[in-house]
């Protein structure tokens, strides 16, 4: 019985020593990789092929873009580090799945009249809206029409949800769908980065995101 116990303790000691040696080797290997190739960096890659000229909206970014951690030595110049940096932009050429996404590969999509209606530091961004049917009365709004983007939050408790203007006087590039007063529509707006990020977030938690003609556009 004593011999069996000794053998058991011996096996446990050997297993612990082997585990410690493996951990030491792994740590040493990781340190050597870090020294040789640099620290890990976040980079955006195409999770699926991206077509030239196809705008990257929030839904497309969620499915077609992914973030990977790779040694800095392998990160090409101009590689994006966050999918939000690609929102509202389109590839200039077809991009295969698995490739890094570079800033030099992207540009605002070409739309008739869009270049003249956007101000500095604004990009076309696709936003889902509801209750914008009044803007389609008499046909589509002219390119460059200015709108206020109104967000209605979900109520907290018994009271109504808070209503606020999230973006004021932004260029409306196009509006499609939205038949009927409460119907959903797709709006392409000229937004700066801060406005785009706030409205993309609002689509996840708000009860309604809608458009109203900006004061200068009202009769």
Provide a concise account of the structure shown.
The chain is an alpha+beta fold and 219 residues long. It has 2 domains: 40-107, Type Iii Antifreeze Protein Isoform Hplc 12 (Alpha-Beta Complex), CATH 3.90.1210; 114-217. The protein is built from 4 helices and 9 strands.
Structural description of this entry:
The longest helix has 36 residues, at 2-37. This protein has four helices and nine strands, in the order αβαβββαββββαβ. It has helices at 2-37, 58-64, 114-117, 193-205, and strands at 40-46, 65-71, 90-91, 106-107, 123-130, 145-153, 163-177, 184-191, 206-213. 26% of the residues are buried. The radius of gyration is 26 Å and the shape is elongated. It folds into two domains: 40-107, Antifreeze-like/N-acetylneuraminic acid synthase C-terminal domain (Type Iii Antifreeze Protein Isoform Hplc 12, Alpha-Beta Complex); 114-217. With 219 residues, it is an alpha+beta fold. The strands form three sheets. It has a five-stranded antiparallel sheet. The chain has a two-stranded antiparallel sheet with strand order 1-2. The chain has a two-stranded antiparallel ribbon with strand order 3-4.
List the helices and strands and how they pair.
Layout lengths: L1 H36 L2 E7 L11 H7 E7 L18 E2 L14 E2 L6 H4 L5 E8 L14 E9 L9 E15 L6 E8 L1 H13 E8 L6
Antiparallel strand pairs: 1-2, 3-4, 5-8, 6-7, 6-9, 7-8
Q: What descriptors fit this protein?
A:
219 residues, alpha+beta, Type Iii Antifreeze Protein Isoform Hplc 12, five-stranded antiparallel β-sheet, two-stranded antiparallel sheet, 4 helices, 9 strands
